[in-house]
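Risk register update: the risk that structure generation would not scale has been downgraded. Supporting records follow, first protein first.
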Amino acid sequence: MSSRRWQLRVEDILQAISAIQQRTNGLTFAAFQRNDMLVESVLYKFIVIGEASANIPEGIQSRHPEVPWRLMSDMRNIIAHEYFRVNLTIVWGTLQNNLPLLIEPLQRLLASEADNEL
C-alpha cells in the first residue's frame, strides 16, 4: 500500500511534466544534450513520473486506458536500472511530443474520479 493518496501521485506527474517543460522551453535538442545538469534533472523528473504512475491503483488505471501507465513506468525502469541504455533522442522526443499529450487526460482523470468519490 502506497504511503500517499493516488491523487497526489497524479499531481506529482503533472508537476514533473510542468518542470520538464519549463526547463526545456525554447531549447534545441543540441542545447539540451550539451547540458549535463539539465539532462540529469529531466531524467530525474521522468523517474518521478514513472514511479508515480506505477503507484496508481489498478482500478484507476483500467478506467483510464488513454493514459500510458505502463510506458511511463517502463521508461522509469530503464532510466533507473538500465541507465546505459538511455537514448537522449528518445527522451527529447518524449518530452516534446508525448508529455504535452498527457496533461489533459490526467487533469480529466482527477476531475472525473473526484466526482466518483462524492
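Supporting record for the second protein:
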Amino acid sequence: MITAAQLRAARVLLGIDQRRLAELSGLSAPTIQRMEASETMVRGNVDSLVKLITALEDAGIELIDDGASSNAGGRGVRLKAGSGYRPEGTASSGTRTRR
C-alpha cells in the first residue's frame, strides 16, 4: 500500500506535477488529486493503485514500508539506486543533487 504522504513525496522527488503523474500512470488528474487528498492510506480500486505504483516504480521511486530497512525506520520514498532518472529541468551532467 501507499500513503498520501508517500505519493506527494514521490511526486516531488520526481519533480512532476499531478497532471504529469496522471499521464505516466494512465489515470485522470482528478483521480490523482483524490488520492493525494486521502487522510492516510491511498484508497482506490486495485487497478488504479497498481497503475499508480507501477508508474512511480518505472520512474525510479522505491516505496519504503513501515518496518523496512531505512535510517529513520518509518515509511517513506527514495529514488532507486542507479535508476538514472533525473527530475525534469535538471542538467544531464550525471551528478545528482541531494535534497
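The chain has one domain: 4-79. On this basis the risk owner (M.S.) recommends closing the item.
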